[in-house]
Amino acid sequence: MNLKAWHFWMKSASILLLCFIYYVIGYELERSQFWLLFSLYSAAFGLSIYLYRSGIRLKFLIGLSFLFKLIFLVSIPELSQDFYRFIWDGMLNSLGLNPYLHLPSEIVKSDAVNAESLSPMLYENMGSLSANNYSTYPPIAQLIYSLTYDLAGANLLLNVMYLRLFHLLAELGLVYFSLKILKKINLPQKQILFFIMNPLVILELSFSLHFEGVMLLFLALSLYYLYACKIYISALGFAAAVASKLLPLMFLPLLFPYLNKRLKLLNRPQLLTYLKFTGVSLLSLILAYSFLWDSDLLFKNSRTLALYFTSFEFNASFYYLLRWIGFQWSGYNMIGLFGKILPVITLALILFLSLRHKKINFKTLVYSMLFIATAYYLLSTTVHPWYITLPLFLSMFTPFKYMLLWSWLVFLSYSAYKIEGVEENHWLIGLQYAAVVALMLYEGLKNRSLFSRIRFLA
């Protein structure tokens, strides 16, 4: 067998093996089977890297990534139970009930909800944490959940299938705008594969149906039109991203130095342009929320969001170190204190990077966004695997590769899920973050001239 034929069969075997791995994870595996899950995930990672380096045409590999996602079309997500809450919110919207105002645990016995044959299954499987907290999913997410339930009715599999189709459409749009951005900033378009072929993205967004994919579509759209100096379209895209997931709000201050076209800080044209962007974005958000607005919405929504920072904890890094120190000092879990301090540190870092520069270019903007998103999750009390798809997306517009390592090692967090209950392995968590932070620092020192764009190591 000659070398060309050997490579052909190796590529073909890799593709077939990836299809098999995704099938097993999607249809045969349970979340509690951690070591088998992580072994298959690692194999998928290695095979994806091989295909990336194999010389196969970009268009073929992009198409292949969507083929892998279609494997899950008729599977019920196993790695996360969040999708039950997505469908529950869609059901409430279809019944004319505001999901921001009603706890599932309180409304499950109502006549309207009881009349829906799917409601007992949704309530039972969403988990007690979700059942006892108000929904915080923003308006565009609620719109898609509602459309899905209107189309599928009380059929669980159809709801899942329609949600997947929405996700696939969003990822098509994400690929379109991301390729345009990569071309504009003179980076290899092949870097799209770091995201679109990544097993983390395939499993957490397409399989488990987390909504980051839709948010990233609108963020990519916003960044593309921002680069093209089309402020109003970019602002609408940014608003849509926030109306899908609230996280992009933390990037709003970073746009202030980017929109400055002069050497002087705080000049009139800069302020006017920034006010146009923020004004259009905020008005669009207000309009989006107006369809679900109620006088109690802000209180109930903020109460649930506050719990995220001060009560929930999972797969954290620096917070777990602080928690240990707090235990030694006080004898109890000080999450109530640290959960308030860490977001303030993140906010201070955002403001520092935003005000440190008089003006920045597009690449510096993206580097700063990546750094902020990374810092946000390193300082968070809760880091589920799908959370880091945001910095993973941003990293493909930079030369930094530490997010690829994190997107592999973050799956170690699934070791926490047992047949009964959740018990984290802190050795594996420590391994994950030690490796990621070490590579971050190495890349920062190696690319000091690039990293100095955000004036942090310079």
UniProtKB/TrEMBL annotation:
Source organism per UniProt: Psychroflexus aurantiacus
Keyword terms, alphabetized: Membrane, Transferase, Transmembrane, Transmembrane helix
Keyword Acetylation among record annotations: no
Highest classification ranks of the organism: Bacteria, Pseudomonadati, Bacteroidota, Flavobacteriia, Flavobacteriales
MF (Gene Ontology): transferase activity
Residues passing through the membrane, by range: 6-25, 34-52, 58-76, 161-179, 200-225, 231-259, 271-293, 305-322, 334-354, 360-379, 386-406, 426-445
Name of this chain's protein: Glycosyltransferase ArnT-like protein
